[in-house]
Specification:
CATH class of the domain at 102-319: Alpha Beta
Strand content: 15-25%
Helix content: 25-40%
Order of helices and strands: HHHEEHEEHEHEHEEHEEEHEE
Shape: globular
Strand order of the largest sheet: 7-6-5-8-9-13-12
Distance between the termini: 38 Å
Length: 320
Amino acid sequence: MLALYKPFWKKLQELDFSEKEISGLQRLTQDKLRNPKQGDYPRWREALRSLPEVEVSAVDYSCHAIRCEGKNVEHGLIDSCYKGLMPWRKGPFDMFGCFIDSEWQSWMKWNRIQQKLPALENKLILDVGCGNGYYLFRMKAHKPLLLMGIDPGLLQIMQFWSVEKYTKSAAAILPLTLENLPTKLCHFDVVFSMGVLYHRKSPIHHIMELADTIKQGGHLVLETLVVEGDEMTCLLPQGRYAQMRNVWFLPSVAMLRVMLERNGFTGVECIDVTQTTTKEQRSTKWMKFHSLTNFLNQDKTKTIEGYALPLRVTLIATKK
């Protein structure tokens, strides 16, 4: 997998990333990918290696499902390999007629926000906690100059490479967290953090770290779980929230605005507030574990723990 990053390192050099920054990212990537310990790694590796060569005739990043079309496709082998990379949380993808119906219908979120995003054409873009890169692929349709994702999940990165093998989008996902990035990187025009903030024990620190990756005048696209209320309102779950163990801090939209404004951002705009439904998040044959419907109470009016139903906001802010 390390060889797959060579064109990306070259691209960073062309974009005036310093040698220290690039070598630091290379070293951390090598450390993370050397001798993986996950028990399912051999299955994932075999699935990725077994994907056949295909004469790709078309790639479409603008559909609900990222779509590849091709000639002389071994449909049975394609299907088997992608099933070897289950579970698929983000998507969907349509790989030569193999429709990967992911748990999240990620196109629904993208459709809600894409018309309100800052311009992405010819921009340097970072997606923090990007999963398998579904949104990176959707961003590709906007012709950015650089697409970089970071995510510590090895399965998600291998899912990305299984799609990138055919799309050749030139995006890259590094197996890193935001904390792993060089301090004061400040190279990116637009940084996305979607579905990350509520997993951080220190949300203020997360916002400060995001600010350190963005150019002056650049933009942050922040999506997270919130609760209703004023700028004094937040929820710190006593245990799990919707059966998630690592949910720490759910602010109100008003409080979130204050958090951004006090940490180097201005022009904060709320572009979407949406309650998550079982149409957007559900179990499928590509993700067979419990999903949202299992995490709500019997009449679906609260989470199974008794908290308010999941409510997600997307804010855009400009770095001062």
